[in-house]
Each structure stands twice: as structure tokens, then as C-alpha cells.
Amino acid sequence: MGRKNLNALLILSILLFIGLLHLLTQMQVGNFNLQEVRASTTTVSVVPSSVTAYVGQNFSIDIAISDVLDLYGWEFRLSWNASLLDAVNVTEGPFLKNGGSTFWYYKVNETDGRLVADCTLLGDVQGVSGSGVLATITFNVLGVGNCSLDLYEVTLIDSSEQLIACQVIDGYGSFRAPHDIALVDISFSPNVVLPGDIVDINVTVENQGAYNESFNVSVYVNSTKIGEKSVSLSENFAVTLQFEWNTTNFEKGDYEISASADPVEDEIETADNSMTANDTVTILYPGHDISILDVASIKSVVGQGYSTYITVSVKNYGIYSETSNVTVYVNASIIGTEEVTLSSATSATLTFIWDTTGFDKGNYTISAYAQPVPNEVEVADNEKSGGTVYVGLPGDINADGGVYIDDIAAIAQIFGTEFGSPSYKPECDITNDGQILIDDISIAARNFGKTDP
Questions:
Q1: Where are the beta strands (DSSP E) in 190-306?
Q2: Cα–Cα dist 31/34, whole Å
Q3: What is the DSSP letter of 211?
Q4: 89: Cβ–Cβ under 8 A, 6 or more apart, which residues?
Q5: CA distance 75 to 131
Q6: Structurally, how many domains does the chain consist of?
């Protein structure tokens, strides 16, 4: 279709829409010939007709039409109590689109709590018959109360520009205060124990809703439930529940304490129904015990001849102060060894630097080993692997075997960022100086187009 034809169709569509608005205006001021309105069983209604929702909740209603013949265009107005509801979205329904392209318009007056919506088919086409949805309106509940969803000044027009008579059915809304249970605190004591010791856990839960509620609160150690209690709370009241965790049969390690409250009926905001304590409980081994907790490279990809940092976390799970040598390996090569002294239940993070000069390109496995301390029996956790690091062409940020424009773009996009910044990417810091600067881009640019053999 040529541009002239498109322009002509657009002009025709606008003229048709203007004609529709003119027709509606004539009807509203009493100049329309009512003898031209045909008898009809058509109904335009708010669906559902009755809505119950809670403060803070969104809900949607449809403006639905039923048993219509040859519908070409429509208009309606809707009003509500603006102190109770906020219209957050208005969308055209699918019904009229079944007849072809449509022109759709709406305007919301939030201050007065009302809207007007219009829609018409475009072009010389037959109207749509049957039943369906004209529009959908989504509201957010602002306050407690009741109000009508008043549907009025509904106008329907057929393809012959004749009015279609219809029955209009309003809606009604009942808006209530929310049901809301929240966990507000978790505390425990002690935080370092031996197997068999008791940990006292306190969980504070509050009824932040407007109704009396009964519900269950459960406490977990990692993923293991260690207790559950039933609670009944009046509105705006809180209670602290006490739980005991018997650590018998739990192995040494660090344990996360969490709690959850079962959602009550009609509760919407459930994110605060669960909570995890900020600290952990450490169960010690009743003897000598050093463990490697974690080993990791700050970079998963490093340019050949450049460096990366490797961090090792080590903890003393024994009951004595200990001194141990921690060694980091890349495959079988020793990167470094550091002595660490830890009192009982304490940990440390050690940092090593791996200069890849002299290392072939390829994948390397990093690992760490803590030398067993005297009389240490459980030594399986003295060693830990930290995954692999790829050594490649400097500037090959994504480890695909070559330096291409996407690598340089990745560095340029975060130019100027520093270690600790959310956008900082260690792999782009080729020089490993904690900053993404022009030298990183230059190194990649010098290798642009190169690939590994």
C-alpha cells in the first residue's frame, strides 16, 4: 500500500472518530433523534459486580458487554470514591478488536475519581456482535470503606451510526483493612557451643493487621525444623516466643537460624512472614580442628602474563588456639603459603596473588590446603577446591579464545569503575589494579582480532 493510500486511510479513520464524538455530543445535549435507537437486550456491566479487597491490594474489573449486534463504537464513564481507590491501569478489551483495527482513548481524573473511555473501529467495516470485554481497569485500594463503581453515560453505536440501546449495571466494592503478620526479631544465645549444648532462640512476631489472628510460627536450623508454636494475637499486639535447640547429633559447623509465620487468611504482604538471623551459631569440635571454608579467585578469566587474587577462608572449629600453614595451589603448582593463628571459633580470610607469567593458556583448578595441627583427627576438610580459572589472551574477557569487539565494549562500558562498585567486573580489570582504566582498554585493543592457536 502506497504512502498516499495510508494517509487517506488515516484521514478517513480520524474523520470517523470525530463523527462518533459528534454523535455522542448530539445525544448528550438532546439533539439526537431517539426514534432511531433500536430496541435491544444488550447489557453493559461491571464484572465482577461485587468486589472485596484489602488496603494495599490491586484488583481489576472488566467493563463487559453482552448480546450486542453490529457494535462499531462505544463510550462509557466510570466513577468511584477517590479516597478509597486509585486507578493504576486502563486497557482496551479484546471485543471490538475482533472486527478489525480500533482507535482507543481514555482519560482518568484521579482527583475526582472518574474516567472516560472511547473506542471505535476504523474503516468501512461491519460491527462486532456477541459478548465480551470492552475495557479492563485496575485499581489500588487506598483506604477502608465501601463505594459504588458507577458506570454511566454508556453509548453504543452500530456501523450505520445508529444508537444501540442497552441496560447498564454498576459495580460495588468493599475495602477492608489488611490481615498482616510479621516477624520483627530473632535472637539467640549462646552463639558458640559444643555438641549437646542448648541454644535458646527468641522469635518476636507482631500482628500488624486489623483483625485477631491465630497462626503457627516455626523455627529452622539451616533447613531442619527444630520447633513450632501456635499463636493467637490481637491487632497491633506482639509476642516473643521461646524455642530451645538441642544441638545433640549436629555436626561441627556454622548454622543459620530462621523463622517463619504461616500466612493468615487473606494476608497479602507475606514477605515479612519469614526472617533469618544476622549471625550464625557455631558448633565446635571437642578437640583440635582447622578447616578450609572457601577458596576463590576474584577473576574467572585472567590474561596471560597478568595476575588475579585468590582468597582463602579458614576457621578454627576446635576448642584450642591453633597455628597452621595455609597453601594455595594452581593445579599442582604452589602459588603461596601463609601462616595463620586462630583462637577457638574464629576465622580469617587470606589473600594470595597469582601471577600467570610462565603459565600456559588454558583452564586451571585452584585449591587450598591447611596443614593439620597437632592431634587433629578430622582432616578431610583441611583441603578444598575452588573451581577453575581460564588463562587466555589479555583482553579475551569472555574466554571464547579470541579478542573481539564485544570484549573491548565490555571494558569500555564500565570505564572508570573501581573495585567495590556494583558495576565493577574483575575480568575487565586486566592489570588487576582495582580500576578499569585506559590501559585495560589499550591492552585489549592491541590484541584485537587475535585468537589462541
A1: 192-193, 198-207, 213-221, 224-233, 238-246, 253-261, 274-283, 290-297, 301-303
A2: 9
A3: S
A4: 136, 137, 138
A5: 16
A6: 4
Q: 438-446 vs 405-413: helix axis angle to the nearest 10?
A: 180
pLDDT digits (tens, 9 = 90+) for 161-214: 999 999 999 999 999 888 999 999 999 999 999 999 999 999 999 999 889 999
CB of 72 within 8 A of CB of 158? Answer: yes
Q: Is 9 found in the same domain as 42?
A: yes
Per-residue CA distances from 363 to 329, 354, 359 (Å)? 13, 14, 10
Q: Assess contact for 332 and 383: CB atoms under 8 A.
A: no
- pLDDT tens column, 244-284: 999 999 999 999 999 999 999 988 889 999 999 999 999 99
**For 125-166, how does the pLDDT look when each residue is reduced to its tens digit (9 = 90+)?**
999 999 999 999 999 999 999 999 999 999 999 999 999 999
Q: Are 403 and 396 in contact (CB under 8 A)?
A: yes
Which residue range forms the structural domain that includes residue 426? 395-453
Domain shared by 338 and 257, yes or no: no
